[in-house]
Amino acid sequence: MSYFNLSKLPVGATAYVQRLHAEGAIRRRLLDIGFTQNTPVSCLYQSPAGDPRAYLIRDAVIALRSEDAKQIEVDCRDN
């Protein structure tokens, strides 16, 4: 299985959360939003400037800056 950070997920693709590398308040925020292990997350949109991007996770659409998305490790599965 190949792991990469969420900021590299192409628009329209889905991956599964594996690990958070964030610490402190941002870690707590990401966990509260639902970024827990094996949760599917899809990249829906990217702003014209490229940052932030919109992600669908647990039936909610959230915007994340690439700085924060880089702290979320995901993998794609062939299922």
- CATH class designation: Mainly Beta
Name the average pLDDT. 94
By DSSP, the count of extended strands is 6
Strand order of the largest sheet: 1-6-2-3-4-5
**Largest β-sheet summary:** 6 strands, antiparallel
- CATH topology grouping: SH3 type barrels
- How many domains? 1
What name goes with the CATH superfamily?
Ferrous iron transport protein A (FeoA)
Count of DSSP helices?
2
List low-pLDDT spans.
Answer: none
Write up what this structure looks like:
- It is a single chain.
- The protein is globular and about 30 Å long.
- The protein is α+β, with helices and mostly antiparallel strands and 79 residues long.
- It has a six-stranded antiparallel β-sheet.
- It has two helices and six strands; from the N terminus they run ββαβββαβ.
- It is 18% helix and 39% strand.
- It has a single domain (3-75), classed as Ferrous iron transport protein A (FeoA) (SH3 type barrels, Roll), CATH 2.30.30.
- The longest helix has 10 residues, at 24-33.
Mind sketching the topology for me?
Layout: E1 3-5, E2 14-20, H1 24-33, E3 40-46, E4 53-57, E5 60-64, H2 66-69, E6 72-75
Antiparallel strand pairs: 1-6, 2-3, 2-6, 3-4, 4-5
